[in-house]
Description:
- This protein is of the alpha/beta class.
- The chain is 29% helix and 21% strand.
- Strand 16 (536-541) and strand 17 (544-549) form a beta hairpin.
- It starts with 23 loop residues before the first strand and ends in a 9-residue tail after the last strand.
Amino acid sequence: MPGRPDGVSRVEPTSAWPALRGIAYGGDYNPEQWPRETWRDDVRLMREAGVTLVSVGIFSWALLEPAEGEFDFAWLDEVIDLLHENGIRVDLGTPTASPPAWFFAAHPDARVIDRDGRVMGFGSRGMASHSAPAYREAIVRIASALAARYADHPAVVLWHVHNEYGVPVGEDYSAHSVAAFRTWLRERYGNLEALNAAWGTAFWGQRYTAWEHVGAPAIAPSVVNPAQRLDFARFTDAQLRACFRAERDAIRAHATQPITTNFMANQSWTTDLWKWAAEVDVVSDDSYPWAADPENEIGLAMASDLTRSVAGGAPWILMEHSTSAVNWQPRNVAKRPGEMARNSLAHFGRGADAVLFFQWRASRSGAEKFHSAMLPHAGTSSRVWREVVQLGADLGKLAEVQGSRVVADAAILWDFESAWAQDLEWRPSVELDHKERTRAYYERLWRDRITVDFALPTHDLAQYPLVIAPAQYLLTARGAANLERYVAGGGTLVVSYFAAVVDEHDRVHEGGYGAPLATALGLRVEEFLPLREGEVTTVAYGGAELTADAWQEHLVLEGAEVRGVHQGGPAAGGPAVTRHSHGRGHAWYVSTRLDPAGLAAVMADVYADAGLAPADAPEGVELVTRRGPDTDYLVAVNHRDTPARIPATGRELLADAPVEGALELPGGAVAVVRTPHGATGDTAS
Length: 685
């Protein structure tokens, strides 16, 4: 290969984790946006910042393949060799998220068509129709060419397929997609009788008598069959994964390095990350908290925990986050001094063994020119640059933590298919928001320093003393049976309202709302009683009055004990919060939307059932423990401005200082304390 260092042997096959030592640090590098004389300056500054890994080539298809089937790798050879000479490893991207102009000119039928029938044009980013044969052929061609050329390059330690599947293009209503949808349905159902039964097509006279009559659920005069729309969401996810597999397999034919693609946990709901995680060698994620949220560190933690969970608890890669402001939110709030380090080390604390940013050098042109970068427009005299250099130095001190794992105390159910179904039209109330309820319960546990894994209802839950189902609208019979066994076996289950309403085809369960969980919960839901906009009620609970709004239900008890009673609204005098002893465990049902204080009161009793003790830490102090073979690492992040005192004994790695009995953590600071197993404190003052 031109420019290749002499005497370099083939990269040996690796484990699922890239061939990296320590916590990887770097970002998305786009040298094609800059003249060659800038490249050497870039790598010099990367070394100054402690960069060890960069992603290259993600949006360079038009340069790598300037005409169909004609390749030009000279510039990429030069870039990768330059990085290698400077000891910087490469995550080599396939550029298939953004096909060139020539592709769409040659294959206009591969353009995406949205639900309203509009043909998507060129000039942005995004994917062609995931079902278009020309697109499938083109992505395999470019992925194969890249892998054949760079599989043996010693700098390449990871392959990065595409970019953020499902964003901005998810569903496609083109002719190619409709044809593929019919094929997918045939494979799923086998015959039209089964399809008609699953979709309930007797309703509104929708019965199908020929496969060619079945289409995508485009805009129609009224609400489209929800079972059809749910299946189209599943199909879309499957088609996107098929595109990923096509590239992955093309790469694997030449290369041995692990292969990934960057998820968007807790931001994109188009892809079912449980299914996607099974397709990659190592999980990676792009994390962009909502800047206007004054406590966006909670959403950040939630995304990290979800990413770690779909990875099966294994270390994962923070593929992208920002050094300061992004460019696409309504108010792109800049990160304050120290916030970037807190964000980065909070991800690290929750299992990330690589911390990367978008991007290395801020772009001068294009839609993301106002997006922050490691090397900002203000240059090396800026605060952001100084913090980037400091973060690189700090991550260099944490090499020994690589490979350690987070051990969770509780699980929250997170089911993408249930979310897809709940988000469809004509639900009983616009206040039924699965994201809001999931965040509410997660936030309660975050504030109590109870570390959370996410799980599906069908997962083995026996390891968790507490499981919470904040938004399980869709629940299969298999999932319900698993939850019932979990409670009977001694677990503590909390179920929020509007749960177990429908099956996998969005059909109301036989027996009524919540029927699959009736045995575990000891009750039936007879009727939904949504409240009017702005209506607020109270719940009498343990001598206190809790504030609630949005939703009530008429419950019929079948063994459950009443713990909270509605004081107003259509369910006045009826049960609002219940607890049921089932087998060796307990199941709680919360049938209204409690405010944060009310949720705290209920969860205090739930913790007692589960045998969990919240850490008595100052508000705004985040505590997570990573566990190695012989050592624990307490990661403490102080999100408040005032100092905190945290019980701990060991050695603080960033300052390389002993900690005896208590860690004094300044406002806005982060500490990582190495301790023997079980020696991390669970209280603070």
